[in-house]
Design goal:
Blueprint (H helix, E strand, L loop, with lengths): L1 E4 L2 H14 L7 E6 L6 H11 L14 E5 L7 E6 L6 H6 L2 H6 L3 E6 L13 E7 L5 E5 L3
Parallel strand pairs: 2-5, 2-6, 4-5
Antiparallel strand pairs: 1-7, 3-4, 6-7
């Protein structure tokens, strides 16, 4: 599905609708965010966090690699925001406990720069491509779930 956003307000609504469409299962839901630098991956992640009730500022965890937020809105227990930009190999994410993260059904996992760790993403990961069209416009391509 392709969606065009012409403002942050529209992007926020896209994030809200996306969160409402998610269903918890027997393991974590993994969302692979792909797009060039400045395309809006972090902004989209922030709006997902807001939708789920995260009050802390959500920033790209480029230097931390991973940030975990406790959630109160069921069915999610944790929002796990991962930035794979600085990773040299998927093994680095495995060393951070990736296998355990994706096993937990209460985890919603957002992976920025997911193409860098594509070989360890679950087959059922939801892929979202984000393209920078102009200063205010973004194009979202959301894989059908």
């Amino acid at each position: 599905m392709r969606i065009i956003s012409n403002s942050n307000d529209e992007t926020r609504k896209i994030a809200e609708e996306f969160v409402r469409s998610l269903k918890a299962g027997e393991r974590a839901v993994v969302v692979a965010l792909e797009g060039d630098l400045g395309s809006g991956k972090t902004t989209f992640s922030q709006f997902i966090g807001e939708t789920l009730g995260v009050h802390d500022p959500i920033q790209s965890p480029t230097f931390l690699i991973e940030k975990i937020y406790e959630l109160r809105k069921k069915p999610w227990e944790h929002l796990i925001h991962i930035d794979a930009y600085r990773l040299d190999s998927p093994q680095e994410l495995l060393d951070l406990g990736w296998r355990e993260i994706v096993k937990r059904p209460g985890n919603l996992v957002l992976v920025e720069w997911a193409d860098k760790v594509g070989e360890i993403l679950p087959e059922d990961a939801i892929h979202i491509g984000i393209k920078h069209v102009d200063e205010n416009t973004r194009e979202f391509e959301i894989q059908d779930q």
